[in-house]
Give the backbone structure.
Amino acid sequence: MSREGSKVYESLERALDAVGVESGMTVSFHHHFREGDLVVNMVVEALARRGVRDLTLAPSSLTSVHAPLVGRVKDGTIRSIRTSGLRGPLADAISAGLMDEPILVHSHGGRARAMDSGEVAVDVAFLGVPACDERGNANGTAGRSACGSLGYAMVDARNARKVVLLTEEIAPYPLGPASIRQDQVDAVVKVDSVGDPAGIGKGATRMTRDPRELLIASNAARAIEAVGVVRDGFSLQTGSGGASLAVVRFLREAMLRRGVKASFALGGITSQLVRLHEEGLVGALLDTQSFDLDAARSLAANPGHREIDAAYYASPGGKGCAVDALDVVVLSAMEVDLELNVNVITGSDGVIRGASGGHCDTAAGAALTVVVAPLLRGRLPTVMDRVTTVVTPGRSVDLLVTDRGMAVNPRRPELLEALTRAGLPVRDVAWLKRLAESYTGVPRPVEFDDRVVGLVEYRDGSVIDTIRRPKALAR
Amino acid sequence: MRLRRSMLYVPGNAPAMLRDAHIYGPDSVMFDLEDSVSPREKDAARHLVFRALKDYDYAGVERVVRVNGLDTPYGLEDIQAVVAGGVDAVRLPKTDCPEDLLAVERAVEAAERRFGRPSGSVKLIAAIESARGILSAREIAACSPRLVAIAIGAEDFVTDLHTTRSPEGVELLAARSLLVMAARAAGIMAIDTVFTGVDDEEGFLREARLAKQLGFDGKSVIHPSQVALIRFVYEPSPEEIAKARRVVEAAADAEAKGSGVVSLDGKMIDKPIVERALRVLALAGEASE
């Protein structure tokens, strides 16, 4: 240590010596660096070198950059994984039966609930930050790899037995505002890089120019307006995905036309939402995750743009969360079925390639849950008898909007009436399915064997579905 | 009253676009077998378009196919395939004189007989793309009872004229006006040329407003995003709609009373005013009898 009170260790190795990571422990990470994350692979490699085995990995999510973990599962370093999502080679390998234990897929709110309640006890949290001071005050808005909100990491920081910060920059004390605080942090390690800035903002949120996505978004916005949500003081969230993000643009037009303002926007914050905030059309931005660099900039600059942690955002276990105050959420879907159950985790081939995220949390909380999807993806229908994997139950979905019409949950007859009155193309969900199949035929179902490779947790911790191994991947 | 505000071009060799073009809400979809399809893909595109016409439900959107000219090796087969497929209208490119169109009419007539479609069920649209064609527009417009519209194709036309397209479109002014007059004289529709700057919303709106002001009934478009813009340009204002409703009601009242004279607010309403009011209501999407 360099001086009294400083927690800076000269290397990750020394920090690991100090906090003591042993076989069988649970280690956690956050995914604020998204496709640019370097921390998970770096730490797991270091632990493997030390001969640590049987780890439980508890990141808030994983992406395609985490392919090297395949080798660490094979050599016994990692025994189990719990995450919101995963894609790429690791997801493919897990779908094919890489792990002895099924992975556990949780929602963002479900993860915060499980950690705050002690159901998941994290031994050591390894949290990458763009900058922190020598005593462990950190935020995501300063530095080369600024990622904006550290909303997911904040839950780890307050719950883990030991907290190690990996930082690119040691800032003068006291760094503020402190998203992660000195009283939570055991060790600080300076590393060359925690994230690749190109990957941090990647893929996220440029406004789509795809006419189909714009058509879906425009229909969704018309529906939201028709059912009376666009009024002064309403609140909104849009999930990731071109169509759902594009809804913001059309809602903006509706707000200007009606002369109304929103009280807050929640969740993943994008440059489009920042624009509305800076125009005065949205009061507060409640940010668990900044989807692009413009959002990260705004978090530092705009007092109304507030960082919130995942429990504030969506935990069903605390005394209240922001999703319950939402008037409308717009969410994407890979598959939707006749009961309006939604799959966002497995592809049409049964292989894991998505993330649960805040999908079921926001759907449960929002007064109006709108799911947007094209009716066909390539040669396959999006609407079907039964989704491959249920992530969000149909009872919390109110409206499905496709490029070929929309369908209302029968539990919401008043929505049906309002949409019909507005002349919107409302159909039965079974009608949409038949229309899709009139183009594609009825797809042959994917066959699975008995090997369970994943469990999908609902936000309350109950298992809502299992993910089995597609027969095509069994050897 | 069928509207043709937007005719959305779809390359005949793009299966997903053939399947989906109508969801963007154009008044007509126009599957192209001509310039957007290379010679080596002509047969495949013709087959795709035939299957699309046969198999897909376009929910009442007019299905037009732009065929190759009869002076090419593909034109006759194109016509036979699309008539067999059930096309609503055949669009002939590069129409220079009535004989070009009459030859297509004969081929369509023969195909109707061969494939058991009622005689006259397939409509024609003639695109005029040369100085010679523009100067024959009056004769072309009047030469066939199947002809529902004439259109101007600007790219070939300005080349023929030894000039280029300008943002203001001054080089097209005379041709556009002649085309509209020829259409009106024959009692058919006039369709404006495409605007190729897909990302230039302002430029598109400027050109579409000009075309509307000149009297065009609509415009060929090459991107789904242009469909909504066209509808916006042709959308009557609430005041225009309210006034049109009152005019049409007054005309209906007069007719019910057996009176030949229509008056509203103490003023006499001429027949053209009633016609214009009916057109406003049609553009507003209100059915009129």
User: Anything to note?
Assistant: Chain B has twelve helices and ten strands. The first strand of chain B starts at residue 6 and ends at 11.
